[in-house]
Amino acid sequence: MGSIVYRRIVDLSQEISPDLQVFPSYPKPVFIPWTTRERHGFLSEALFMVSHSGTHVDAPLHYRPEGKALHELPVTKFVVPCRLLDLRPLRVKSRIGPGALRKALRGVPLARGSGVILWTGWEAKRGRRAYLYENPGLTRNGAEELLRGGPSIVGIDTANLDLPDAGDFPAHHTLLKASVPILENLAGLADLRASSFTLVALPLKLRGATGSPIRAVALV
Question: Which of 1.50.10.20, 3.20.20.30, 3.50.30.50, 1.25.40.10 would CATH assign to domain 9-19+50-219?
Fold first, then answer.
């Protein structure tokens, strides 16, 4: 019986630290020293951060009151064959619609049950105001186009899948209503150098949570 050999493992995650860039509605992560070697014999820290900090997954419950919480999603959604759709270059608040997605697919449809990552190149803006407030975003029609391919999970290298001015979050609602979790703040996509790979994006198994930070990696 043959086995798959992965030549490279590529980290697609942001580093979480107290200076992590977050939206104003969220606190920055705090690491609180909890035990000491002198008193307890070992070091540990208590972590305080929003479940949507850094590279993270949105569970359907994040936007949909009827949606599943994180622990209710099957683990198979987070370890999948994946396609990288190169949408670059994208300008400020570019709309990612069906036409742009079809062009990036290059006539090769998504495999049902696979993952898809939208590569906007917006990671280059990280640390600046533009990263949070001027990002390209997936439109409602674009999300519906992706759903036709039957994806297991959808990711993007921006802090928000939706356009920053889309106050009703149409792309989030469209995908999460269909129980397709969303990955945001992906990083290092330029290091992939491949359009197909295996995505491992495992969240913590948090009961009742709307999301979780993840350590996303690509097996190429």
Answer: 3.50.30.50
pLDDT digits (tens, 9 = 90+) for 129-168: 999 999 999 999 999 999 999 999 999 999 999 999 999 9
The pTM assigned to this predicted structure is 0.96
List the chain domain ranges.
9-19+50-219
Query: φ, ψ for residue 47 (rounded to 5)?
Result: -105, 130
Amino acid at 172: H
Q: How far is CA 82 from the centre of its chain?
A: 13
The 3-state DSSP class for residue 102 equals helix
Residue with tokens 């009703």: 168
CB 185 within 8 A of CB 159: yes
Token representation of residue 128: 């600046």
Q: How many angstroms separate the CA atoms of 107 and 19, rounded?
A: 42
Distance separating alpha carbons of residues 105 and 67, to the nearest angstrom: 29
| CA–CA gap between residue 195 and residue 47 (Å, rounded) | 35
- Span 22-42, average pLDDT: 97
Given this model, what pLDDT does residue 212 score?
A: 98
- Report CA torsion sign: 84, 90, 96, 98: negative
Closest CA to 219 of 3, 1, 66: 3
User: Once rounded to an integer, what is the mean pLDDT over residues 91-109?
Assistant: 97
